[in-house]
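Before the break, one more example. Copy the sequence into your notebook; we will annotate it together after we see the structure.
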Amino acid sequence: PAVGAARLLPGAGTVPGWEPADEVQRFTGDDLFLFIDGGADLFLEYGFREVAARAYRGPGGAAINAEIYEMADPGAAFGVYSVRCGDAGDEAAVGSAARLADYYLTVWQDRYVATFTGLSETPAVRDGLVAIGRAVAGGIAGRAPAPALATALPAAGQRPHSVRYIRGPVAAANIPLGEAVLPWQAPEAAAARYGGTGGHAPATEVTLYLLAYPDAAAAGHAFRRMTAGSEAAVDAAGGLTFMSPQKQPGRAERRGRHVAVAVGGDAAGRRELLGKVNAEQRTASGWE
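Here is what the structure looks like once it is written out:
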């Protein structure tokens, strides 16, 4: 019998209209580079265990390729999902979270992130993506919540599909303004974009990062190191103003082992957004 991620791939007769077209492929550890060229670093940074892949054939010879990635923990899988999806697609009722864009479906559930790629853009393929995706998600016993740091991002004014969960520089480099947090060297971060839509404050788009360090001392060290930058200054309220490597203005505030960083937009928008990271949210998500 199949083991690991391979056991989640539907077998013959499981999904009406769709049948396996080849044998299951499995790759573990650094062998992931043999399977995906140019994208393996992202998975390995979060904590990759294995991938199982299989092709399926459906109505009229339509084809779908399924890939199931088992990660070290649910947060790692959510992080890969958030970065790989980007802003594209519509939400789909599959697993804990899913995004369907044209002929491509990405699903997150527990410690798994799965991708399903149709080789043609037809209604039958789109239906097949969802059907196979639901079959895979149905075989995953767990349903862990999103990382607390990601859910701590204020909901008001948040741009749709803009939440990202980051555990290293590879992920940060794959998101807009991600280079702004690289100098902070935080082991864990969450980000989302706000405003700039004409109907939500702030008036100009601002990216908010919530950074988490092992303890308050580590956060304090990072904050003090950033104050030494050539364009950094600490104001009377204890907030740090700075310029990002992309020459975007930013402001940061520290609370315990966490730092909140707002980048882009204008000064009023950055202050307003940091104000939304209020005492209630900090307490609920460990912002002591």
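The chain is about 25% helix and 30% strand. The longest strand covers residues 48-57. Try to locate both features in your own notes.
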